[in-house]
Structures are given as structure tokens and as C-alpha cells.
Specification:
3 copies of one chain form a homotrimer.
Chain A: E1 4-5, H1 6-12, E2 16-18, E3 24-25, E4 27-28, E5 38-41, E6 58-61, E7 71-73, H2 77-88, H3 92-95, E8 99-100, E9 105-106, E10 111-112, E11 117-118, E12 123-124, E13 129-130, E14 135-136, E15 141-142, E16 147-148, E17 153-154, E18 159-160, E19 165-166, E20 171-172, E21 177-180, E22 185-188, E23 191-194, E24 200-203, E25 208-209, E26 214-216, E27 222-225, E28 230-231, E29 236-237, E30 242-243, E31 248-249, E32 254-255, E33 260-261, E34 266-267, E35 272-273, E36 278-279, E37 284-285, E38 290-291, E39 300-303, E40 306-308, H4 309-319, H5 322-337
Parallel strand pairs in A: 4-5, 5-6, 6-7, 8-11, 9-12, 10-13, 11-14, 12-15, 13-16, 14-17, 15-18, 16-19, 17-20, 18-21, 19-24, 20-25, 21-26, 24-27, 25-28, 26-29, 27-30, 28-31, 29-32, 30-33, 31-34, 32-35, 33-36, 34-37, 35-38, 37-39
Antiparallel strand pairs in A: 1-3, 2-7, 22-23, 39-40
């Protein structure tokens, strides 16, 4: 970042200045990585103890913290820090210069909005419609008749297959694949016969999908990723799946075909769902869980096979006593054998 | 689809017409997604109850079903529906126009069959041989000396490394990587030393590999995917693996090096196999299982570590009683302590 | 390979010739794949029995083996075989011809060392710096200000985002993505708000990363992959992770954000780590394990949730007796009910 005095930053972040406003800030970093010229932040008072050892020049704190160095006080330190990061991020215009790169292949039948950026070697098929300020990185491929809403960003090497639709402000990271064929076959006399996958994928507004994440097109109708939902890297979403709004799945999670996931669902990494599972609103699924049945609204599940999380934790704790239990039961059996039943006494 | 009367569709699908043949069909969709103008299908009589609430205009049924609306009767409703979907699918010629796109880079030493399609920015290396009607999507990269059989389809962003061989009618989805180096190192004085991977990958006829799926080249010889086998998205196949014919693996499954998998094997998603495992013909592996030893022909296994599925189910059921069992054993110990052995009595 | 007499090969590999040096060798292959003209190797005396049935023309053996056919004797047969494979591998110059391909897009502000190869349609952004003999395959995309050390090799379709840094002799396999945004959001009034990810990725010398593997950029600071570390295909490394030197992770393993992994750590495939976990030097993690807490130096862990491997094995063994244990405890309860306590006697 451009070096800046703490008092200038206070104005930009609408923060209360505490201590020396003339301190020069040259960067921003989390508590663990902050160096001598950096401004850092303490998200919760409980973490304030870690600040003492940091060489950071300044700190963003919340209402009830007494900082040990020049500081900015705000209502929500993490949010203020995030807004600072946004100012420091590489501008999208450097990564995606406006205009169509001369090496891009844009079909004459495609319609591009104002301020669209099409990167080197990108391919835009016939019938595509790109909203204003859509940005396509190098090597992005849009097959025929893809529609993308305003201000969406597709990083290099994204592929969107024919007829799929992306909403506004969608972000797709490198290598993301939208609309590959769903995985469906029928047994036939000469082997498996493919069930054609003629549906599409609909990615609603404000969705973000990670690097290498794959969302398959529906057999008929649409696979849907609801507005505001965020999927991490290398996630698999099968055909005909419907994911609700504002849900969050960590990396390498896999959702089998025809699952229906609610709003505000969070899943850890490497979770797997069998096909046709229904997961209600607000459900939380622990990392690496394997679900083979429905979960009602608000459920918290964990394990393989997944159970209610509290039960799963009790089982995990009891498991550590299992080898001992095997021994104890054998002892009990021997002990009891030495005590004949009452009637024989 | 082009609107069409039900009686016309009956002729095309060689089906018996039941009821009003003048009904106009404007689309096709599964039971859950069918709208007012759609034709849908009921795969099994057990599902017929779900039809009642559907707005579908018509339905494809099997021999022993009495439909509640205009219908087509066939021997196998799902297969007839699939054949209808095939008529409705986007023609491959729209996705892969015949000919070599002017931006493609095709080495002079490559040999292309009749009717080959090479998409924008695709790269075909020296010594490659493409059979008739092979279709390469945008940005496909074939390294030197790759051979591809007739009518195979490589979607955008597929990479096939040098000397690998694909059979006829192979389908590779976007981002699939064939022939990357196997993962092999030897400990050396300065760290791990790479074992060069000079083998290849052989993908036999009618194989379909999903988006982002990776099949590594062999150290020597070949990694082989047998004819008719279908792998879903983000599957990993290590070096020197041999997979038989007509096997089916779901998404995110991983097969470690030198495994030998039989014919007609099915694996759920996120399954993992340790290296050098032998899996017999017709084996079924439940989702998320972890196999560390061989499975004989016809085996059905599940769990982590994987066991015979019936045993694994019994254990999973018993696990829910484990916390209770811990308590009971403690009670038994206390109770027995209050009953001295016979000889002390 | 070019046909060669065994005595010539003995000279090249600095090996002791045993038996007929005039045998013509036409290829090299592991014991299981070796054909009639091949030379193979026996890594350990325990495997010598398998040699008998092999049609191999010759064999590389260790000090204390008595071969049944013409042979080369060396101190370390596997290493000698690997060095033979290196001679047989396709030369990098055939895969990556020196020079910049005319279809590549190299920004004028990029600096290229001597002997650099830039493949067809590759994109090198402004401010990039490539060391001598760096090789970029077809369709590689380097965003702005990427730095790559000498002799590194990026296979086709690799993406490296802005400002990330690769060391010397780094190898990235097809579809590898370096520097995509880390997965971080804050809850906001209208849904999740993105935390900008302005850090970078640092990949140190001699690192090799597999096909489809994703390493996310840090929120601030750097995600670091230590020198000599090797990650297999489809591995996920979250933001702010630090992996030490000479560690090895198998395919589809996932490391959540801010984990710190030591030197010489080995992980099997499909392992998952929760965020902020610390894993010490020399730790071994069994395949498919799920770690949710720290592991000290030298730890050997396994399972989900992961425990000390020996304990995990005992539990796995005891689990097979669990259904039986449930029955036994029920029997014990019945038996004890028929034996009233002492005081009642």
C-alpha cells in the first residue's frame, strides 16, 4: 500500500484515533503476520493478549479495548480491517483491463454490455449475453447461449457450458466448471448408456465458487445455486441439486444428484451427501461427514455416517473406551461364571 | 424443443398412444421438474403416485401402469425418456463446428481424420493422430504423439499429455487431465528425488471421464481405464492403476497407485483406495469408504476402514448404543462387586 | 528407448555386469509390466521370488541377490532404475520448445531469462519475472507481477495469480491453480461479505504440485509451501497455511486455513485438517484421517476423528467385536438379575 499516516486512515475508515496520528502505516496484516510498519486488528477482546508481542505499528480495536499502541477504534474491528483490505487489493482493472483483447474469440452473435472485459484467448460463443462490467479472465470459455449478469467476474480458465445462466456479481475462481454433463447412465445390452443431460445450471446473484469447483447441468430443468451462497475450492455439485441462499460449503465437499439444500446451511470440508438428500435451513454439517438421510431445519450433524452432532461426539468419546470395554466384559463374564445363579446356590 | 403433438412423439419413440394424441408437447422433464407443456415419465409403478400432483401434459409409462392423462406406453419408460432427451440435446455440431478453428495451433506432423473439429485456441502437438469425427473443444491441449479414436469428444480445457492413447467414442469433460506424472519419489541425500514417469495412459473405447478428473501416467507401461467405464468429476486415478470394463465411480473418489480394479465395479463418491489393492469383478463400494485391503469378486463393502457392508451396518447400528454400553458395563462392575464369588460365600 | 546392449548400460549406470553382456535391451519396466526385451529391477531381496515368472531380458539387483538371468548389480536398484528412466523420458525440449510461441501473449513489462520457453496461447502478465530456462506449457496464465525462479516447469493450463512467487526447479502439473482467493467472509446485513484476500502464495524451491491442486493466497502475508515439498493431485491448501520442507501429501488431501505443518510430514490421500491446526515435524497421517487438533513432532495419527495410530488400530479391531459386545452385556445383565446382591441373600 501507499504509506499513509494513521490519522488519514482514521478518516478513511471513519474511526476514532487513539494515540499518535503521525505514525506511518505501510501495510496491513493479521495479528500473526503483522510486521513493523503494519496496522493489524484485534477482532475480540479475548485475543488482545496476543497483541503485546506484535511489532505492528498500530491496531484497530473495538469499543471496550485499551490498546497498547496507536490505534483506531471502531464498532467492528474485523469489518473495518476487511474494508481496509478492499482498499489495498489489486484493482480489478489491472487484472481485467476493459475491452476485448485482440486474441479473444467473440462470436458475432454475442451481446456484450458496457465496460465488459474479455481477456486474452477467451472464447465467447454464439448467443452469449454479458451484462455491463462483466469481466472474463484469460482463457475463459463460454459455450453457446450463456447469460451472465452485471459485474460478474470469471477468473482465468473458467468454463461455462451452453445455456447456463449466471446472475449479477457472481465470482468464479480459476478452473471452475459450470454445466458439465450430470452423471447418469442406464444399463444396456452393450454396457452403460448415457442419459443425455439437457438441463442447465443457474447460478444466482452474489454467488462465489472456488477454484476447480464443478457444478453439473441438470438432466432436465436446472441445477441451482441460490443467491449469496459461497462454495470453496474443488467442490462437486451433482445434477439437479438445488442449494438455497447464503449457504457456505468448505473445500472438497461433494453433493450428489438431486439433493435439496436449504438457506443458511454451512458444511465443513470433505463432506459428502448421498443423492436425493434433503437438508433443511440453517443446518450445520461437520467436516468430513457422510450424510445418507435428510436433516431437518436447524440440525447440527457430524460423522460417518452422520448423526446428531452431540450424539456423534458422545460416541467418539466412548470409542476411546471401547478396547477397555472389551476387556472388562470378558472379565465380567469370567467373574460371573464363578457365581452360580441363585437357584443353584 | 420444437412443439410436437403426442401422436407424432408416439411414432418417433415407437410407443403405444393412450388417450388424446392431439396434446401439444413443448418440453420434457423428470417428474419433479415437469411443467404444464412437458412430457414426463414414470420409471417404476411404485412412483406412479407422484404423478397425480404433476402439471405435466403427458407421461411415458410402462406395461402395467394405468396413466391418469394422455400417455405413451413403452417397455422401458426411462430408456424411452432418455432417447427423447437425446433428440432434444444441443447438437454436437453447434458445440463443436467441423473444421479447424483459425486460432487453433495444429502441428504439421499431426494427422487429422475426416470431419474432425478443433476448437478455438486448441493445441495439437507433433505426431498426434485423430480419428474421424474427433471433436476437440476450445483450449484443449494434446501434447506430442497423442492418439485418439473415432468420434471421441474432448470438452474445453482438457489436457492430454504426450503419447497417451484414447479409444473410440471417449468423452472427456472440461478440465480433465490425462497423463500427468504419477506421484513417485525416492528419498535422497538432499530431499526427495523424482522417479521419472515414462509410461502412458490408455483410455479404452466408450469411457467417459468427468470434469476435473485426473488420470496419471504410469511409471512404466500404462495406466488403463477399461472400455465402457465411467468416472464422475474430480476423481483421482494414480499411476499404474488398471480399471476394468464397465465400472462406475462417483465423484471425488481416489484410486492410489498400482490398484487393480475389476469389471462392473461400482464405487460411491469420495471413496479412497490404498495403493496396490485388488478389487474383484462386480464389487460394490459404499460412498466415502476407505479400502486398505483386497476385495474378492462380488464383494459389497462399506466403511472406514471398509468391511463387508452387512458387518459395517451392524457396527454402525451398535455404535449408537456404545455410550449406553459404557454405562451399563460400569453398573455391572459395581453390581458384581457387591456379589462376592462363590467360594467366599 | 534406443536398443542397447546390457554391457553398454552397465557402463552408463556404473553397475557390475553379471552374465551375458551382449543381451539387447529395448525397454525398461517394473517387475509387473516388464516384457521380453525389457530390463527390470528387484528393489528388495524379498521380491526376488517374483522375478522367476518374468520374461524380462535382464534385471538390476542389489548386493546380496543372485539373479537368474543377465543382470546389473548396484548398491540401490530402485535408484539405478530411476536414473535409467530419466534417460528414457521424453526430453523437456520436445514438450517445451525454447522460445516464445507466436500465439503467446507476453506483456512488454515482463522480463524473461535466457532459454525460457513460453508455449502456445500462454499469457504472461505485466511485471512478471521468469528466471533462466523457465518453461511454460500451452495455456499457462501468469497474472501480473508473478516471479518464477530458474528451471521451473509449468505444465499446460496452470494458473498463477498476481504477485505470487515460485522458487527454482518448481514443477506444477496441468490445471494447478496458485493464488486463488482464500475463502473468507464476514456475516453482514445483506448476506456474507467477502474479506479481500490481498496476500500471496510463496512456493519454495524444488516443490512439485499435482494436477488440479489449488493453493489459495493469504488474506495478508503469504501462504507458504516449503522447499522440496511434494503435493499430489487435487490437493487443497487454504489461505495462510504454512507447510514446511520435504513434506509429502497424497491426492485429494485438504488443509484448512492457517494450519502450520512441519518438515518431513507425510499424509495419505483424502486427509482433512480443520483450520488453525499445528502439525509437528516428521508427523505421519494415515489416509482419509480427519484432524481437528494439533499433533506434536513425530506423531503418527490415523482415523476420523484422528487419534494416535496405535490407539486407532485397537479401536478399529475392537469395533468388529462391538455387535457381539452389545449381546454379551445384555446377557450379563440378565444373568446378574438372577443373582441377587449379597445383602439380600
Amino acid at each position: 500500500m501507499e504509506p499513509m499516516r494513521l490519522r488519514e486512515l482514521a478518516v478513511q475508515l471513519d474511526a476514532e484515533l487513539i494515540g499518535d496520528g503521525e505514525v506511518v502505516i505501510t501495510g496491513a496484516a493479521g495479528l500473526e503476520h503483522a510486521g513493523a510498519g503494519d496496522i493489524t486488528f484485534v477482532a475480540r477482546p479475548a485475543l488482545a493478549g496476543r497483541l503485546a508481542g506484535s511489532p505492528a505499528a498500530a491496531v484497530i480495536v473495538g469499543p471496550h479495548q485499551a490498546p497498547d499502541r496507536p490505534a483506531l477504534r471502531v464498532a467492528d474491528p474485523y469489518r473495518a480491517f476487511a474494508s481496509l483490505l478492499a482498499r489495498l487489493a489489486t484493482p480489478l482493472d489491472r487484472l481485467f483491463p476493459p475491452g476485448v483483447h485482440p486474441t479473444a474469440v467473440v462470436d458475432r452473435g454475442a451481446a456484450l454490455g458496457d465496460g465488459v472485459s474479455v481477456g486474452p484467448h477467451a472464447v465467447v460463443g454464439p448467443g452469449c449475453r454479458l451484462g455491463d462490467r462483466v469481466r472474463l479472465g484469460a482463457h475463459v470459455v463460454l459455450e453457446a447461449d450463456v447469460a451472465i449478469g452485471e459485474s460478474s467476474v470469471l477468473y482465468p480458465h473458467v468454463v461455462v457450458r451452453e445455456r447456463c445462466r449466471l446472475g449479477q456479481r457472481v465470482v468464479l475462481h480459476p478452473g471452475c466448471v459450470i454445466g458439465a454433463d450430470g452423471f447418469g447412465y442406464l444399463p444396456g445390452p452393450a454396457g452403460l448408456e448415457k442419459i443425455p443431460q439437457i438441463g442447465i445450471v443457474v447460478v444466482e446473484d452474489d454467488v462465489e465458487l472456488g477454484a476447480g469447483t464443478c457444478v453439473d447441468r441438470a438432466t432436465t430443468g436446472a441445477t441451482v445455486i441460490g443467491a449469496g451462497t459461497k462454495l470453496d475450492n474443488l467442490v462437486q455439485v451433482g445434477h439437479n441439486v438445488r442449494i438455497g441462499r447464503h449457504s457456505v460449503f468448505s473445500a472438497q465437499t461433494g453433493i450428489s444428484g438431486s439433493c435439496e439444500i436449504g438457506d443458511g446451511v454451512s458444511m465443513g470440508g470433505q463432506v459428502g451427501l448421498a443423492d436425493h438428500i434433503k437438508v433443511g435451513d440453517g443446518v450445520k454439517v461437520g467436516a468430513k461427514s457422510g450424510l445418507h438421510k435428510d436433516v431437518p431445519d436447524g440440525g447440527v450433524v457430524f460423522g460417518y455416517p452422520a448423526l446428531d452432532a452431540a450424539e456423534s461426539m458422545r460416541i467418539a468419546a466412548a470409542l476411546r473406551r471401547l478396547p477397555d470395554l472389551v476387556r472388562k466384559v470378558a472379565q465380567l463374564e469370567r467373574a460371573l461364571a464363578s457365581r452360580p445363579p441363585e437357584k443353584e446356590a
